Amino acid sequence: MVLIAATVCTKSGKALVSRQFVEMTKARIEGLLAAFPKLMTGGRQHTFVETESVRYVYQPLDKLYMLLITTKASNILEDLETLRLFSRVVPEYCTQLTETEVLNQAFNLLFAFDEIVALGYRESVNLAQVRSFVEMDSHEEKIYQAVRQTQEREAANRMRERAKELQRERLEAAKRGQNPRSNVSFGSGFGSSSMPPSSTSEPMIEKIPTTPARENRPTIRSAMKLGSRGTDADSFVSRLAKEGDVAAITPQIAAATKDIAPIAADHKDVHLRFEERLSLTAGRDGDIQNFELSGLLTLRITNEQYGRIHVHIDNKDTRPLQLQTHPNVDKEAFRSSGVIGLKQVQRPFPMNSDVGVLKWRLTSSNDDKLAPLSVNCWPSEGTGGGCDVNIEFELEQEHLTLTDVNINIPLPSGNTTLVVHQWEGSYTQKGRTLLWNIPVVNKQQKTGSLEFTVTPAIPNDFFPITVTWTSDTSLAQLTAVKVTQADDGSPVDFSQDISFRPDKYEIV
User: Fold this and answer.
1) Cα-Cα-Cα-Cα dihedral of 408, 412, 413, 415, to 10°?
2) What structural domains and CATH numbers belong to the chain?
3) Model pLDDT for residues 484-507, shown as the tens digit of each residue
4) Which residue has the higher pLDDT, 466 or 47?
5) Residue 385, exposed/middle/buried by CB under 10 A (0-12, 13-18, 19+)?
6) Is pLDDT at 202 greater than 70 in this prediction?
7) pTM for the whole thing?
């Protein structure tokens, strides 16, 4: 199939939007469009008409026509399939099928046409993919920008704090007539907030981070003067930058935030983060061979007046979750009433750092009802040495909402032919893998199926199947009910986010 042009025109042959996909002069395309109305005389009810050189494939759109001009050697079935996709794209961007609306949306239509056809040949895309490509909305770019802003903000805050500390140390040293201390360390006593690998079964050990020792730097008298008036933190930060401290601090910030989710602008002074990772291996008959869920609740406080608080956790999960609080957390209060607070009530939580306060695990190897999503693959040998494959998924835990679900089906090596018959969502073929994407899986849209044929193939060629997703709902039904002050029990405004994703999800 070679598609010469795609045009939205009036019944008189006036072109409103026209996109040529091969080299052609303006006079030639205008002549082809001018000949189209003359060929429509006689009240013909066909969907195509031919001349000696080209074929016109068209579909009425109210008072307009969606017209494709192809070569006579092209496949008429493929022409009609491409025409149907073009006819669905036009109403997608034009609320009313009028000349004015088409002209207003001309650029969007041209961008969409370019996604459907490239150099005269049809691309393997559907309407949802065309819409996504035209919008050019990149989730990865948003994450990168958020992480970059977080790193810059954290670096600036660290430098201001360091500037204030250096000022205090130098003033105190000047009063005592001593040299300022060059090494200062502080241990918070709380573990790292990063998630441990879900595949390990060893006990989880807390690590005590310490502030790295500062380097001894010679005092530059022209840059800093003890006791001078008008020396604030911001000006001191700029001087530190000139001395090279920015280069020393930035790698620390980058390393500390590499595995931490970006801090959103709507985070409150008290922010909770529930993070879960799942490792699951299932057999082809649906039996679970390995299941391990690990979760971590981290607390971040950015305001000193909320240093001493209680976090109230509600555990609605009836499964045997293994819960473990931080050693500095009052375990008895958590067991009896689900309250996370420090043993030493006079001590505050660390400021401006993600503090892990609660971990949970759930392991099993024989409970088939624990899987959040079941995937069944039924390959059967067909005629001609090929395989007819039926794959279906079903959401098993209805309280979950999974987004951007990707089911990766391996394909046999060699020179094969893939034909997809039925699907939900969208699919693409990348090398020897068929990527099946479902935007949302929830209680309302809990099932879906994909049917395709591969020739030649055998049933074992389509395993193992891997599944990935993102979710802002947790598998373990642990929720933060409220946050209160430890002294008087007054409520504290807080924010929270939830992340649930698989580290490994395979059907072997």
Assistant:
1) -120
2) 3-135 (3.30.450.60), 142-257 (no CATH), 270-279+286-363+482-501 (2.60.40.1170), 373-471 (2.60.40.1170)
3) 998 888 999 999 999 999 999 999
4) 466
5) exposed
6) no
7) 0.50
